[in-house]
Each structure stands twice: as structure tokens, then as C-alpha cells.
Design brief:
single chain; about 60 residues; alpha+beta; three-stranded antiparallel sheet; about 15% strand; Putative regulatory protein MerR
């Protein structure tokens, strides 16, 4: 599955909901690239895009 809810994303990755929201607010994760807002208003995380972000941005 490509998209998961923020809750499921937290369960799968270990990123808390607050950590994910902070990354979205700071612009680390971009809307329509790393996550999308579904027609019902829910935030859906793109697992493939987040995985790519991790692989392309090694730890400092």
C-alpha cells in the first residue's frame, strides 16, 4: 500500500504523530510529495516517498 493514515504511519515507522506533523510544518516533508490530504480531509502519508527521503538524506 502506498498511502497510509498518519496513525498507521506512526505504528509502522516509529515516528510519532507529533514528529511527523513537525516535519510537515518545517517543510521537511512536502504536501503532494510526501503526504496528501484525502478528499475527506485526512492526512495520508506516502510510504514510498518517505522511504526515498530517508535513503537520499543520510544522517549528518
Amino acid at each position: 500500500m502506498k498511502y497510509v493514515t498518519l496513525r498507521k504511519f506512526s505504528e509502522l515507522t516509529g515516528y510519532s504523530k507529533q514528529a511527523a506533523e513537525s516535519k510537515m510544518k518545517r517543510g521537511d516533508w512536502m504536501r503532494d510529495q510526501h503526504y496528501r490530504k484525502a478528499p475527506d480531509g485526512r492526512i495520508l502519508m506516502d510510504l514510498e516517498a518517505i522511504e526515498k527521503w530517508i535513503e537520499e538524506n543520510p544522517a549528518a
